[in-house]
Structures are given as structure tokens and as C-alpha cells.
Amino acid sequence: MRFSEKMTLLEEIVHKLETEKLPLEDSLELFERGISLVSEAKGFLSEAEQRISMVTDKGQEPVILEGVTEDGGR
Q1: Where does the signal sequence lie (predicted)?
Q2: How many helices (H) and strands (E) does the chain have?
Q3: Which of 11, 13, 48, 69 could crosslink 34 through cysteines, CB 3.0-4.6 Å?
């Protein structure tokens, strides 16, 4: 499952837990699934950070996009 799909699923779980009156067992199951997704997402982000660090540490300069500010705007 892609990172973006995990985040979408996590958002859906949070929404259900916040808005629906679920039986305790169902809530607990959703909570556990959410915790698992968070762990997977953290692992993905950590791996991505390491890969970026490896690329930039090998003497390659990071890509600089002209006209784009630090917050992603133009």
C-alpha cells in the first residue's frame, strides 16, 4: 500500500472513531489498525529520510526549484 493510501485510510479511521457510535470491540479494532498504519507510515518516512540523506551526502546537491518558496508556494 502506498504512503498516500495509508494516510487516507488513517484519516477514515480517525473520522469513524470521532463521529460514529461504535461498539467497544469495533473501536478497539479500528484503533489498533490506526496504530499499525502510523507505525508503517513512520517507517516509510524514516526510510525516505535516509535515502535523501544518502543522496545528498554523496556530494550531490539537492534540487533547487527556481521561483518556489520554502513553504511550497510561488
Answers
A1: none
A2: 2, 0
A3: 13
